[in-house]
Each structure stands twice: as C-alpha cells, then as structure tokens.
Amino acid sequence: MPSPDEILNAKILVVDDCADNIDLMIEILRDAGYMNVSSTMLPEQVCELHRQHCYDLILLDLQMPELNGFQVMKGLKEIEQDGYLPVLALTAQPSFKIAALEAGARDFISKPFDLLEVHKRIHNMLEVRLLYKELAQYSKKQQELALHDPLTGLPNRRLLEDRIATTLQHAARHNRKAAVMYLDLDGFKPINDTHGHATGDEILKQVAQRLVNSSRKEDTVARVGGDEFVIVLAEVANVASAQEPASKLIEVVSEPYKVGELTLNLSTSIGIALFPDHAQDVNQLIHMADLALYDAKRSGKNRHCVAQLPLAPDALDGATPAVGVGAAQQVTV
Length: 333
Ligand SMILES: Nc1nc2c(ncn2[C@@H]2O[C@H](COP(=O)(O)OP(=O)(O)OP(=O)(O)O)[C@@H](O)[C@H]2O)c(=O)[nH]1
What we know:
- The protein is of the alpha/beta class.
- It has 11 helices and 13 strands.
- Guanosine-5'-triphosphate binds near residues 151, 201 and 226.
- Guanosine-5'-triphosphate binds near residues 185, 189 and 201.
C-alpha cells in the first residue's frame, strides 16, 4: 500500500480554462499537504505535459472552449503506455458524470466543490493509482527475474531462445547468416573444489562481464548452465567472421582472474554453429553448437570448433551417418 508520504508526493496536474478555478483547486490541494502540484489553462498542452511528467493524477475540467475534457482524454488514451488513465473529471454538469466515466475518467468531482468529497476522491484515486504503479513495477521486476540469471544478470535460456528466434527471423528476412557460440569453461570444477563455491561464483561473474565487454551491443550473451554460456552473433558474413570473435573470447577468458588475494587461471572451449548452414531452427542450432563444443573439449579444450555441415544424402551411401557433427573443424588458440 502506498504510504501517506508517497500520496502527498504524487504528481498532480490541474487543467481548467478558468484561472480562479485553478487557484482554488491548487489552494485546496496545498492545504491538504500535496507537494507536487502544477497546472495549465491550455488543454492542448495536457498530452505533451503528461508525456513528459507522467502524472499520477490529472484533475480535468470537462467544459473548456478550445478542446474539451473528452477530447483531452481521447489524446491521453493514445499516449498512456500502461493503459491507466489517471483522470479525475471536474464538472458542473450532472449529465457529464457518466459520460466522463465512459470516456475513461476514473472518477469525477462535482462543481461547486464539496471540500470533503474533493479530499476523499483525490486521496482514494491516488491510493489506487500508486498501488497500480507498484504492481506494474513489481510485475516488470518479476518478468526480468524470470528471464535473467540471478548470479550474473545475463539473459537465461528462456530469453536466449527468444533472442535467437528474433535473430534468425531477421537473418532469414535479409538473407544473412547468424552464429551461435556455445562456451563451457575448462577446469572450473577444481576452482570450486579448491577455493570454494563463493570464489567460483565470483569467477563466473567476472567471466560474464568479460564476455559482455568483448561482444558487440547487438549480440546476446546468456548463461545457460553452471559454467556454460551462449553468445548469439547477428549479421555474420561467414564462418571466419564467427571464428574471429571466438578466438578473441578464448584469449579474454584466459586472462588471469583476481579474487581477493587469489590469482586464478582458466580457459574456455567454444562450439560454433551457423544459421542457416548448420541448422535452421533455434533448438537445433544450439544443439549443433553444443556438439561442436563437445568436439572442442574432446580434442584438448581451450579451442573452438565449428559444427560440420550436414552430409549430402548421396555421401551417406553405405555409411552410418554421424549424429549432428562428425569431425568438426577445430582451431587451437
Ligand atoms: N560456483 C558455482 N559453481 C557452479 C554453479 N553452477 C554449477 N557449478 C559447478 O560448475 C561445475 C561445472 O562442471 P564441469 O563443467 O564438469 O567442470 P569443469 O572442471 O569445467 O569440466 P570441463 O568442462 O571438462 O573442463 C560443477 O562443479 C558445478 O557444481 C554456480 O552457480 N556457482
């Protein structure tokens, strides 16, 4: 529930074409302790002001000569991002009350003002508005948490799959390639075993930071398991343009790590798969990169391997096909 202080600090805009009405409403609000009140006599400015200041409450006169309150609400509806119109309509016309509610106002106040009613309605409306904002923020935070790894803050597998899907759609539309790099640290378990889990966690955070710092803004770096990371490269011209960043990442990860007094070393192996060459859908592409990673591990670690192109059907005559990759191309750094 919003605190009394939060309610008194809410941002309020008073809109009326009559200066006396504005002065009166501002006096009522200031007397009640509201600290963040502004006003305008120009209804055509309301949408722009709301866009800039995102008011918690707009006290809106319905009868104004140039642009009436109903027209202002129509404009506000178009810009209100979270679908909540924080409008309290002010009207001397009984017949306008229901029309105002139908037009999107949350409530109304009748003119001439009944002070007690004004205070109650404003307070109630702000309470609901701030509660709505809290809920919206909470739900956004929950969504963030559901899509990110809590240790490193990187996207998790769910968000990664989404990002790959978007990257592939874009690549397909523009007839471009994209690449998925699957990284698994080499010799991470002994660090945990020798120096403890907290040190391991610190290393994972530093690795994550290095991967992000060494990637382009448009690429996605995700943590998909204990010491496993996936990087999605958009707009890749050919295999070489994925191998080059892979070599750079291998170098960057093998720089020494400082954790307290300790200086620790580790390396990483990387499997690379290209869209559309090695696979055309998200999970298959990750799978191909994972198989190439397995080859990099098996052939000595601290290197990258590229997935094998699928064999043409006539090359399989009489042979048992390998699953996914055969002998992947490997590069030791
Ligand atoms: N500190 C820490 N360790 C984790 C976390 N998640 C998984 N691990 C550990 O990470 C290790 C990953 O195992 P492996 O990949 O087999 O270890 P490795 O020594 O790197 O093995 P290779 O890949 O063959 O070099 C396991 O010991 C897990 O317990 C985590 O969040 N924090």
